Amino acid sequence: MKLPVSTEWLLHCATTLAQLEPGATASAAQLAEFYxxxxxxxxxxxxxxxRANVLTAVTGPRGGFRLARPAAEITLLQVVEAVDGSxxxxxxxxxxxxxxxxxxxxECRDTCVLAARMAEAHEAWRHSLASTSLxxxxxxxxxxxxxRTRARLASINPSRPS
Length: 162
Fold this sequence. Notes:
The protein is mainly α and 162 residues long. The protein has one domain (5-154): Winged helix-like DNA-binding domain superfamily/Winged helix DNA-binding domain (Arc Repressor Mutant, subunit A). It has seven helices and two strands. Helix 1 crosses helix 4 (76-84) and helix 2 (28-35) crosses helix 3 (39-51). The radius of gyration is 20 Å and the shape is elongated. The two termini are 32 Å apart.
């Protein structure tokens, strides 16, 4: 399974926002400069997290984005699905019933074993992401990272275009 690059961006941006002091925000321009990403495209992607109630958008001169809920209540799966949806990546098209190698219909009453294994793998992946919160991620980064992240974000002028 290959996810779009924007998935990585939003996982990192959500983790970055989780490192801010409560109530603090970071603008799309700040996050874009922080990670050297295209600001307009990142802003559009961040709106997907707002629609999914992962982030809140704050307007005004001190506006930007912040987590919509505590980091312990936001899972990696919620971030991924906000961007990529929840459809399984594998779709069985029953090719076992096509071509010269076609199996008789009576041998295809049960779900294709390959489709079943792919579905199991997808569920295991989803379970792993659903059981990992942003707070869990923060618990695994160096203890000095949040202060460094806040200082570096603060040094980026939020009104300056990226």
